[in-house]
Design goal:
about 140 residues, transmembrane helix, membrane, about 85% helix, transmembrane, single chain
Length: about 140
C-alpha cells in the first residue's frame, strides 16, 4: 500500500459517505418520517438532519474531496489543457463540472429549505442526488492511467 492508495481511499470514502448519506436520507429516513411523525415533529427532525448533513459536508466532506481530488490530479499530471483531451481529460472535466453543479444544487436545497420554499428545495435535493450518482458514474468511467 502506498501513500497514494490512502489518498484515493479517502477520496472514495468521502464520495461514498456523501452519496450514501443522500440515499439513506431519501430512501430510509424521509419515508419513515413522513409515515411516523406529525408535521411539526417531522419538520424538526428533518431540519436537524439537514443541518447536521450540511455541517459535515462543509467541515469534512468538501475539504477532503477537494484536497484529495487536487492531490490525485497533481499526481496524475492533470493540467487545465489536459482536461480538453479525449478520454481521461474530458471525463474528468465532466466529473468536475457535475460535482460543481451538485454542490450548487445542495447549497440551493439548504437555502430554499430555510427560506420556506419546500417544493423547490425538494427539486434541488433530487437534482443533487441524481447529479451525485452521475459523479460516481463518471468516476468509474475514468480510464486507469
Amino acid at each position: 500500500m502506498t501513500w497514494w492508495s490512502v489518498v484515493r481511499f479517502l477520496h472514495v470514502l468521502g464520495a461514498a459517505l456523501w452519496v450514501g448519506g443522500q440515499l439513506s436520507v431519501s430512501l430510509v429516513l424521509l419515508p419513515l418520517a413522513r409515515r411516523l411523525l406529525d408535521e411539526q415533529r417531522r419538520g424538526q427532525v428533518l431540519s436537524a438532519v439537514g443541518r447536521r448533513f450540511g455541517l459535515l459536508t462543509a467541515a469534512v466532506f468538501l475539504p477532503v474531496q477537494l484536497a484529495t481530488g487536487v492531490a490525485i490530479a497533481w499526481h496524475k499530471g492533470v493540467t487545465w489543457a489536459s482536461l480538453a483531451e479525449p478520454g481521461y481529460g474530458r471525463i474528468l472535466a465532466a466529473k468536475l463540472l457535475l460535482f460543481c453543479a451538485v454542490m450548487a444544487a445542495a447549497g440551493a436545497h439548504g437555502w430554499l429549505t430555510g427560506a420556506g420554499r419546500p417544493r423547490l428545495a425538494r427539486v434541488m435535493a433530487v437534482t443533487s442526488l441524481v447529479g451525485s450518482l452521475g459523479v460516481v458514474l463518471l468516476a468509474t468511467a475514468l480510464p486507469a492511467t
